[in-house]
Write a structure and sequence with these properties.
The complex is a heterodimer of chains A (368) and B (302).
Chain A: E1 13-22, E2 25-35, E3 40-44, H1 51-59, E4 66-71, E5 74-75, E6 86-89, H2 101-111, H3 116-129, H4 145-157, E7 163-167, H5 175-192, E8 195-200, H6 203-209, E9 212-217, E10 220-225, H7 227-232, H8 237-242, E11 247-256, E12 261-265, E13 268-272, E14 283-288, E15 294-296, E16 307-317, E17 321-328, E18 333-339, E19 353-357, E20 363-366
Parallel strand pairs in A: 3-8, 3-9, 6-7, 7-8
Antiparallel strand pairs in A: 1-2, 1-4, 4-5, 9-10, 11-12, 11-14, 12-13, 14-20, 15-19, 16-17, 16-19, 17-18
Helix pairs in contact in A: 2-3, 2-4, 3-4, 4-5
Chain B: H1 12-40, E1 44-45, E2 48-49, E3 53-56, E4 59-62, H2 67-74, H3 76-109, H4 115-123, H5 130-141, H6 146-153, H7 167-191, H8 196-203, H9 208-219, H10 221-236, H11 240-245, H12 253-263, H13 267-300
Antiparallel strand pairs in B: 1-2, 3-4
The chains are: A alpha+beta (368), B mainly alpha (302).
């Protein structure tokens, strides 16, 4: 499948005001979304955010209460699951326990009336793709978790679907295997070139695998964008807090120019390197990631802006970095992540007095 | 599974827990069976059975009388009765499966809070005496019974339809009695089925009808076999239902046994009939069952 840019490729899949209500509670609330051809798109949210319901509506297991799903210009939301050119890799795989690996992969092909030679050829191709040739005649319970996952992937790709859905694709694997599989899985998907929507609660998984992602909460998409956009420029407190670690300072807008703004907070004043076109005096929040803060034990020369004073309350050494929890003078606890750049760099002792500083470009001002 | 069994179960404790009931069953199945087997090959003198082994003048004699078995093969009545018993039992199993499977299916797919109540309804008949329930069918199916009266009252029939003491009445009683034994194992199998497999099949393009056969039924084969065995095996030797609800044309091995024991007082003959039944019918079934469940268990065990 070539990735050539035909017209309409940007909205290969279009979801319009899609809503699902269970007993008048909206699990998915007027969600609109466009996904480009060949893209891996991740829906990220905690349990109950509606991400699974959205995925199940794409697969056809839930009927939307309102809205439409348009795949390649065709409205599909009224089609039964078995009529859609969409396949899903289920959470914990849902492999047929009574069928062998080959039979599992061939299941969909046979239902679509493929001729026997074509089925055999396609199954071989899929087994090669996921490197499971030697296991063709095993039953699922004779395979390891990672192998089962690859059978599930092969089964869902066998019909060459227009859209591949992944429901928590790595949740059933243990940590070490998960990291390795993330790359393997996205490589296979990229190789096949299939457009893919995945659902996950694991932000690392979403950020590694997805080209773009959406953060979902209470049935709505809070922010849609590339993983780095969402991490570096969160649109609201929820997103900033949900993706990664963050320090949030509530304050008011004191200055607002095109190239900077100043926020006054009870903890200190912040000079931020972007304007927000807000109203002076407006309540805002400054979001600052722990790895963007520097700690020093001498007082810096300029202490008017972007400088917080406190004492080290706790310290956790992770190997690659250390996390400090600093008790600020204002009473707030500040999280600071310090990379272990030198082998013998001394750690700052608990109880030491420290100054935490950050650059104007390291912060984001959130208005909601 | 293994990891969750307590450690003590792996040692002598496990052997005791499994061994005691096992010993009980072996003892109280094989001891009576051996007694019956002995009687079936013994010479009867009046009410006394001769010893199989005799010691006489320094000669050890083993006398086995096979006349009863030879008579079984020579008289077509016995062969016909065996065949008809198997026929009725098979028919009973098929009808129980046809009624019980959908029943178990909808019970397993009903909302979880309803299931205990539905299960209780299935086992409700066991709360009254078996004999009483069979007798009740007499009242329903008699020429002047409830069914005929209702049909007459509705003017659907002009004269009572003869239902009692026919193969029909016997089958009604058999199906009624054995249905729960089909429903329960099939239900137990269906209720633990992973419903995402049904979704996976639909996702791969399978229509609901084909999914039912290819996934649901295929995965419930162990339950179907277990239920069928629970119905088939006891219904081959069923005595009470053919006696109370069956007629002269319903040949069942259980009645022949009864007649030989208590009407003809020919214990040797009766024993031979019983032993033949065990050897010819139950042993092949047990072997089949063993391999079937092992094969199915290999498929679905995970």
């Amino acid at each position: 499948m070539p990735n050539s840019a035909a017209p309409g490729d940007a909205d290969f899949l279009r979801v319009e005001r899609l809503t699902k209500r269970f007993d008048e509670v909206a699990a998915v609330d007027e969600v609109s979304l466009s996904i480009a051809r060949g893209e891996i798109f991740a829906l990220l949210g905690s349990s109950g955010s509606g991400k699974s319901t959205l995925l199940r509506m794409l697969a056809g297991f839930e009927t939307p209460s309102a809205g439409s799903i348009i795949l390649e210009g065709v409205e599909i939301s009224k089609l039964r699951p078995y009529e859609r050119p969409i396949n899903m890799m289920f959470q914990s795989y849902a492999l047929f326990p009574h069928l062998t690996v080959t039979e599992n992969i061939a299941f969909g092909l046979k239902r679509h009336g493929w001729a026997r030679e074509r089925v055999t050829g396609q199954v071989d191709k899929m087994l090669a793709l996921v490197q499971l040739k030697p296991y063709a005649r095993r039953k699922p319970h004779q395979l390891s978790g990672g192998q089962q996952q690859r059978v599930a992937l092969a089964r869902s790709l066998a019909l060459e679907p227009k859209l591949l859905l992944l429901d928590e694709p790595l949740a059933a694997l243990d940590r070490k295997l998960r990291e390795q599989t993330q790359f393997e899985l996205s490589n296979i998907i990229k190789k096949v070139g299939v457009t893919c929507v995945m659902v996950t609660h694991d932000q690392e998984e979403a950020m590694t695998m997805a080209d773009r992602m959406a953060v979902m909460s209470s049935g709505q998409l809070l922010q849609v964008g590339r993983p780095n956009e969402i991490y570096e420029t969160p649109s609201c407190r929820f997103v900033a807090d949900f993706i990664g670690n963050v320090n949030l300072f509530d304050g008011t807008l004191e200055q607002d120019e095109i190239d900077h703004c100043v926020i006054g907070t009870p903890h200190g004043r912040f000079y931020v390197g972007h304007g927000i076109t807000g109203v002076l005096g407006q309540a805002v929040t400054v979001a600052l990631r722990p790895e963007k803060i520097e700690l020093q034990q001498q007082a810096p020369s300029d202490m008017d802006y972007n400088c917080l004073h406190g004492r080290v309350a706790e310290r956790a050494y992770f190997g690659a970095s250390s996390l400090y929890r600093i008790g600020l003078d204002s009473g707030m606890v500040l999280q600071v992540s310090v990379p272990s750049t030198e082998r013998h760099a001394g750690l700052i002792a608990v109880g030491s007095e420290v100054y935490a500083t950050c650059a104007p470009d390291s912060m984001v001002v959130l208005t909601q | 599974m293994r990891a969750s069994t307590p450690r003590w179960l792996h040692g002598w404790g496990r052997r005791v827990v499994i061994g005691v009931p096992f010993l009980f069953l072996v003892l109280f199945f094989s001891a009576p069976f051996l007694v019956v087997l002995r009687i079936s090959v013994s010479e009867a003198v009046g009410v006394r059975f001769m010893d199989l082994l005799t010691w006489d003048d320094g000669t050890l004699t083993l006398r086995l009388k096979f006349a009863n078995y030879l008579f079984l093969t020579s008289d077509p009545v016995y062969i016909l009765t065996y065949l008809s018993s198997i026929g009725f039992a098979l028919l009973n199993t098929l009808i129980c499966l046809a009624i019980g499977y959908p029943f178990a299916y909808f019970m397993a797919r009903s909302p979880a809070p309803w299931r205990p109540a539905l299960l209780m309804l299935v086992s409700l008949p066991f709360w009254t005496s078996y004999l009483l329930r069979i007798y009740a069918w007499k009242g329903l199916l008699d020429d002047s019974g409830v069914v005929n009266n209702v049909l007459l009252w509705l003017h659907l029939i002009d004269a009572p339809v003869r239902m009692m003491h026919t193969p029909f009445s016997m089958m009604v009683g058999m199906v009624y009695t054995y249905l729960p034994f089909m429903i329960l194992p099939v239900y137990a199998n269906l209720v633990k089925m992973d419903l995402r497999l049904v979704e996976a099949a639909a996702d791969l393009g399978s229509t609901p009808f084909r999914t039912f056969w290819l996934v649901t039924v295929a995965l419930s084969v162990p339950g179907i076999i277990a239920g069928s065995m629970l119905v088939l095996i006891p219904s081959i030797g069923e005595y009470v239902i053919p006696e109370l609800l069956g007629g002269p044309s319903t040949l069942m091995i259980g009645r022949v046994l009864w007649d030989e024991f208590f009407k003809n007082i020919d214990w040797s003959m009766a024993s031979a009939v019983a032993v033949s039944m065990v050897v010819l019918i139950l042993i092949p079934l047990a072997v089949f069952n063993h391999y079937q469940t092992r094969g199915a268990g290999r498929g679905s065990g995970a």
